[in-house]
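Morning run. Coffee first, then this:
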Amino acid sequence: MAIYVIEEKKLFQIVTAHTEYQIQADSYGVLRHLWYGEKTRCAMDYLLDYPDVGFSGNPYDVGTCRTYSLDTQPLEYACTGNGDYRIPALTVTQPDGSCSADLRYESHKVYSGKYAIPGLPAVYDDKGETLEIILRDRYSDLRVILRYGVLAELNIITRSAIIQNDGSITVRLEQVASFSLDIPSRGWEWIHFYGRHAMERVTERAPLIHGIQESSSTRGTSSHHQNPSMILCQKDCTETSGACFGAFLMYSGSFQTKIELDQLHQTRVVMGIHPELFSWALQPGESFYTPEAVLTYSDTGLETLSHRFHKVIREHVCRGKYQLAERPVLINNWEATYFDFDAEKIYNIAKEAATLGVDMLVLDDGWFGKRDSDDSGLGDWFVNENKLQGGLKQLVDRIRGLGMQFGIWIEPEMVSENSNLYQVHPDWIMQIPGRDPIRGRYQLLLDISRLDVQDYLYDCISKLLTTADITYIKWDMNRSICDWYSSLLPSQRQGELPHRYVLGLYALLERLVTDFPNVMIEGCSGGGGRFDAGMLYYCPQIWCSDDTDAYERTTIQYGTSYIYPISAVGSHVSAVPNHQTGRVTSFEARGITAMAGSFGYELNLGILNEDEKHAVTDQIHRFKTYGPLIHNGRYYRLSNPITDEIAAWSFVAEDASEALVQGMVFRTQPNALRHTLRLRGLDPKGLYQIDGTDHILTGSALLHGGVLLPKTWGDYYPFEIHLTKVSATDR
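And here it is:
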């Protein structure tokens, strides 16, 4: 049991293996947040001693008590219009036009099993527990049900809310966050993950300022530019020590994370759907479900926080056949051919790949409709037989005959104006009447909130999967969204479209993963533009970035690793000079970097020299040998590639029986000592042998003294060291 309720005090304690979360409904029915952190085994309400703060008003029902203000109290779900002037989680326009909600405790319930959310992805766990706290607006029939899912052994708590209209008149939701959290001042610093196309999830750490800080996306997707995740940590927090709190949102649309350091130095965090362009007409008897946020707390540094997030995503977010299974090593033809290919050229790429040990060929953009460039064909998901003579099935069968699997690229959410679909159904696109649409990559967007559009796309994709033996889909999405307008929604409800779009995407994906359980879908949005836990519920891996440069990828994958497991990261070896940066790195450096993910190739194998072909075979063999360790072991960040002269990481088996250390030394200096790396996660009493040598070192030596890296020569010098525990020592 992880949820404890002390009825007489209306105190709720959520206790996991190493953390404790406390909530209390006070004597006025206000639900206050008491504690999230280390286990205390004590009611933490004794800390709430507030002064009379000027210009912080008092609820009418507290009488003459001037020290009680909702503007200073640590609230569990903050609302607009009740005397709390800090950032809200809920903003409601009432039928009379007022903008106010005053939520008070009504009831609660506790039950076994982790809750689910209709139409939205959520952490799943039959062994989990759920706490529901029902709040009611004092002056209307609006109810808010706060839901807490608890995975006690994983130290994970999830948050979601249901907004329920139990009245007889429509109310309008203007902002509905998944959670808000008020925590005391502890010298917090904020870590978030910013970027742009081809340079995603760069870490930035900064002190909180008095005022409001924000990371968000209004692009209709979680975006390349910010990620729906955050970490607060103490100033002295490192990978291995110090307190930190983290959260990520299981949502693939526009989001907002706001952090406010208030007048009393308290910190409020609010995360959820972005309120810009959002409004929702909540009809009588209807409920609105927020996306889920996933939280954890660590008092032993950022490493522990990441390990908890990795495990919950791998084991309780990702689903299906490929959740934990070995992923096929693939070759994607895009950088080898772009749009210039025919069936014979694709077959020859596959034939060469098969001889080198590649498991799958993925046919990228250009196989459908009249698609010879990126300005036509999207929406026409039928085979271009001028390119693929004999049809897709014949090509797939030939490649299957080589012992390889076959995958295919699609971009279902988009339509080209130069396409059959656009000519037949111009009403299916998102375009504001009387205004020219905004193009992105020559593309317009289908209104995927519409069931008829979902049905069309389902029929096209299912026909592909049933007429040819396809076991992999790369699902791309290559633009930001604007022109928010649906011809099916009345004018006063157009603000619902951004969220309805995401619900439509999830509904289509759910149909496909249910009906085609043996097909793996890899998410993609110009690389990492929709890299979030919502997509991972349907797609167990996501193409990490369109930047395949080995040096840049160390930074991108470093930032990604704070929240997301390595098994979710799509990463390939590409050609040099790199097509995004022009940088030249060695074949081995590209291979080492790509192995920290789901491995594959994005180049023309036919033009490689014999040494490079041998390198491909060797890399594939090593990846398949180390794959279970890479995808299911504990991941350790051993350096910061943004500030250090080296990128280094390691994978350690859960039982510490083996470890794989990989990385890259960016620059070689003359007359320099060899680099050493202090490892983590090993058994200090174990004896470890370094593969290919007779060196046997104690775990303690490797943890405290470190491992000596090879001598380097040239820039971007790669290294890989595998250690196996051969015995234990009592010393």
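The two ends are 39 Å apart (CA to CA). Good start to the day.
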